[in-house]
Amino acid sequence: MHIRRVVLLIAVAAALAGCGADGEPIQPTMSASVGVGSSGTYGGVGVGVRRGGLGVFLGL
């Protein structure tokens, strides 16, 4: 539950930052995956921001 809240806050911050700031725009990114393996199912999410050649990504 706590991890979801952190991921949501990061996604909201990235979206707000990309809405229109001075200078080069910041591009928010998000990914989600679900997989099935021999040990069961698993899932993952990630959010990030990119500005020019610099990018930061957080995956859980």
From TrEMBL:
Signal peptide interval: 1-17
UniProt keyword list? Signal
Whether Signal counts among this entry's keywords is yes
Query: What is the protein's name according to its record?
Result: Argininosuccinate lyase
Provide the species name.
Ruegeria conchae
Q: What is the lineage of its organism?
A: Bacteria, Pseudomonadati, Pseudomonadota, Alphaproteobacteria, Rhodobacterales
